[in-house]
TrEMBL record:
One family name in Pfam for this protein: EndIII_4Fe-2S
Domain spans labelled HhH-GPD: 38-185
The protein, known as: Endonuclease III
Family: Belongs to the Nth/MutY family.
Function: DNA repair enzyme that has both DNA N-glycosylase activity and AP-lyase activity. The DNA N-glycosylase activity releases various damaged pyrimidines from DNA by cleaving the N-glycosidic bond, leaving an AP (apurinic/apyrimidinic) site. The AP-lyase activity cleaves the phosphodiester bond 3' to the AP site by a beta-elimination, leaving a 3'-terminal unsaturated sugar and a product with a terminal 5'-phosphate.
Alphabetized InterPro entries for the sequence: DNA_glycosylase (IPR011257), Endonuclease3_FeS-loop_motif (IPR003651), Endouclease-III_FeS-bd_BS (IPR004035), HhH-GPD_domain (IPR003265), HhH_base_excis_C (IPR023170), HhH_motif (IPR000445), Nth (IPR005759)
A single BP term in Gene Ontology: base-excision repair, AP site formation
CDD domains documented for this protein: ENDO3c
Name of the gene: nth
Source organism (scientific name): [Clostridium] hylemonae DSM 15053
Cofactor, free-text remark: Binds 1 [4Fe-4S] cluster.
Needed cofactors: [4Fe-4S] cluster
One of the record's GO molecular function terms: metal ion binding
């Protein structure tokens, strides 16, 4: 690991601690899978509001697999892109029921074979449920990793590969958790608080 990367991680650990936090509320692997699917182009806070009632209405994989498409669309409408999300959720839960005996699979290849599940969602499940070291590339990780010079790529899969090489395995999951907090509070997309940033000396875009 480069000295520069080591310093960045030490500062993030000092600022945010090293506890594993999942910002999406869930009580089971399938609930986290659905919540993560709903979080595409939507805030975790809004997803948590929607899933509070959603998981009381649909209490199992089977319940989602048998859900009425139009009704589910209305149930998840506040998360946006609800036509596609509802269709994928029903298809995904049917696959989990029929192919995996109702259990959310562990392996990356099996997860990404499910309807509506890409590498980001799969890695959220692998990291948070199965504690498999995984790099989750969301919008915060993509933006900030480029600003910090940890990658020069814009393709999420290439960024994932770069970070897996650059970061020690014990920080793969943790880095995402810390960067989400950092990206929401300091290094925001539109108006980053550069003067208040504790990583400004490592940022390619910081100008005094």
């Amino acid at each position: 690991m480069k000295k520069r990367t080591k310093e960045i991680l030490e500062i993030l650990d000092e600022q945010y601690g090293t506890d594993f936090i999942c910002y999406l509320n869930h009580d089971s692997p399938w609930q986290l899978l659905i919540a993560t699917m709903l979080s595409a182009q939507c805030t975790d806070a809004r997803v948590n509001i929607v899933t509070e009632g959603l998981f009381k209405k649909y209490t199992s994989v089977e319940a989602f697999a048998q859900a009425d498409l139009k009704e589910l669309e209305q149930d998840i409408k506040p998360t946006g892109f609800y036509h596609t999300k509802a269709r994928n959720i029903i298809a995904c839960m049917k696959e989990i029921r029929d192919r995996f005996g109702g259990e959310v699979p562990r392996e990356l290849e099996e997860l990404v074979s499910l309807a509506g599940v890409g590498r980001k969602t799969a890695n959220v499940i692998r990291g948070n449920i199965y504690h498999e070291p995984s790099v989750v590339v969301d919008t915060h990780v993509k933006r900030i990793s480029n600003r910090l010079g940890l990658t020069e790529n814009n393709d999420p899969e290439k960024i994932e590969q770069d970070l897996m090489k650059e970061l020690p395995r014990d920080h793969w999951i943790l880095y995402n958790i810390q960067i989400i907090t950092f990206g929401r509070s300091v290094c925001t997309a539109r108006k980053p608080k550069c003067r208040d940033c504790f990583l400004q000396k490592y940022c390619k875009e910081y100008k005094i």
